[in-house]
Amino acid sequence: MTTAVTTAPAPARASRSRRRGPLVPFGLRTRLVLAFLLVAVVSAGTTSALTYREARNAVLASAQDTAVVSFREQVESLGTGLPVDPPTLREMLFVIASKAKPHPWVVFAEYGSVRVSSGENPTSTVITPELRRTALTASHGSFERVVHDGVPYLTIAMPVAVRTGNTSSLPSGLVLFAVMRMTDEQADVDALLTAARDGALPGLAIALIPALLAARSVLRPVRELRGAARSMGSGRLDTRIEVRGRDELADLARTFNESAGELERSVDELQQAEARARRFAADVSHELRTPLAGMLAVTEVLDEDAGTLDPDTARAVRLVSAETGKLAVLVEDLMEISRFDARAAELNTDEVDAAETVRKTLAHRHWDGRVRTELPEGVRARLDPRRFDIVVANLVGNALRHGAEPVTVRMSVRERTLVTEVMDSGAGIRPEVLPHIFDRFYKADAARTRSTGSGLGLAITQENVRLHGGTVRAANQPGGGAVFTVEIPLTGIRDTEETRA
C-alpha cells in the first residue's frame, strides 16, 4: 500500500521560525532572552510535536483502517460475473456505498471503458493516476490520502477477482474505488494542533521571566567592559574595570584589568624603544653627514688621480671611493626614512610638466640613452618635484640593477589619476618576493649580503607616493619582466585641451 499525507501547519511553523531568525544579531539582552525562549520552544515544541504526531496518526489510522477493512470485505463478498452489465454494476455500488464505515463513501467502478459510480458523476477527480496504476498490481488493494480543493479525502482501490475454483481466482479487470471525506478527522487533527500550540504558550511566558532576570544581571558588567574596551581603543590605556563578586564575569573583569596593565606597559616600552631607535638613526645619520661630505670630496680628488698611481693603489682608491659613495647614499636614505617615521616629511607641490619631470630625472642620471619613454605631452600636474624625482629614479634604478634592458617608462592619465609605469625586460619578480618587495632592507636572495643600493629605495618610494595620496604596486608582466605602477590622484591635472578651453 502507498500513502501520501499533505498538511498545512508545518510550513506555517517554518515560516514563523524564519521570521525569528533576523532577531539574532541584536544586542546581548535580546540574545539571552532568545536563548531561554529557544530552550523553552524546543522543549515545548518537541513534546507537542511528538504528542501531535502520535495522536494524529492514531486518529487517521483508526478511520483509515476501518474504511479499508470494510471496503475490502464488501468487495470480496461480491458475486460479479463477466461481462459486467453497467446497470447491475451500479446497483452493486449502491449496496456497497450503503454499508460505508466510518463515514459515507462514494463508490466508483472502472472496467475497460466502462465508468459507473454510486454518485452523480461516473468518474472522480480525487482518484490519482498513481492509485489507478497501483490498483492493477496490488491484489489486496491500496489506498491514498489526498487533499483536493482544500478537502482531505481517503481513496481506496480494490481490484475484483473472479473465482476459478475453491482456492483460486483471476483478475477480472474490474477495479472499485471508494472515496471518503475525512473532514471530521481533519477537524480533530486541527484541534490537536491548536491544543499543542496553546499548551506551549504558557511555557514561553514562564521562560521569559528568568531570561529577563539573567539578562539584567549580565548586561551591567558587559556594558562596563564594552565602555572600557572603547576607552582603550581610543588610546586611554590606563582604563580599568571595577571587579564585583566572584563569578565568571568578575574573572573576566580581573583578566581585562591584568591584560590592560600588561598592554599599557608593553606599549610604553615599544614607544620608548621606537623613539630611541628613530632618534638614534636620525642622530647617527646627521653626524655622519658632515664627515662623509669631506670624505666624498677627497675620494673625488683621488679618483681623478687614480690613473697616475700604481695598479694596486688605484684599485684601492677606486674601492674606497665606491664604498664611500654607497655609504653616503645609505646615510641620505636613512635620514629620509627617519623623517617619514617621525612624520616630519612635508610635501612642497608645484605645477609641473609631468613628462618633462621624468625626462630631467633620466637626463640627470645619464639614463636617457638606456631607458625608453612613452610620455604624453602637455600633462601638467601639481607634484612635489623633488619627491617625484626620487620615485622615478628609484624605480628606474631598481629596474636597471635587478632587471634587464630595455627599461621603459610609460605615463598616462586615467580617470583624473596620473599613472606612471616602469617596466623592465628581465625575469620578473618571484611570487614569494612580491609581498615583501617594499619592505625595508628586504633581500630577495638570502645569500646576498651586499648590493649596490641601500635596501631602502623602494620603501622610500612607497612613502613618497603615499605622501602624494597615491599607491604603488609591483607585478610581473605576462610576457616577462617586472612592472611597477604608481598612481597619484591629481585633482589639479590639466592637459593641453583643457588649457586651451
TrEMBL record:
One Pfam family of this chain: HAMP
Entry EC no(s): 2.7.13.3
Annotated ranges, domain HAMP: 216-268
Principal location listed in the UniProt entry: membrane
Location of this chain's protein in the cell: Cell membrane
UniProt cross-references to PANTHER family, sorted A to Z: SENSOR HISTIDINE KINASE GLRK, TWO-COMPONENT HISTIDINE KINASE
Protein's name in the database: Sensor-like histidine kinase SenX3
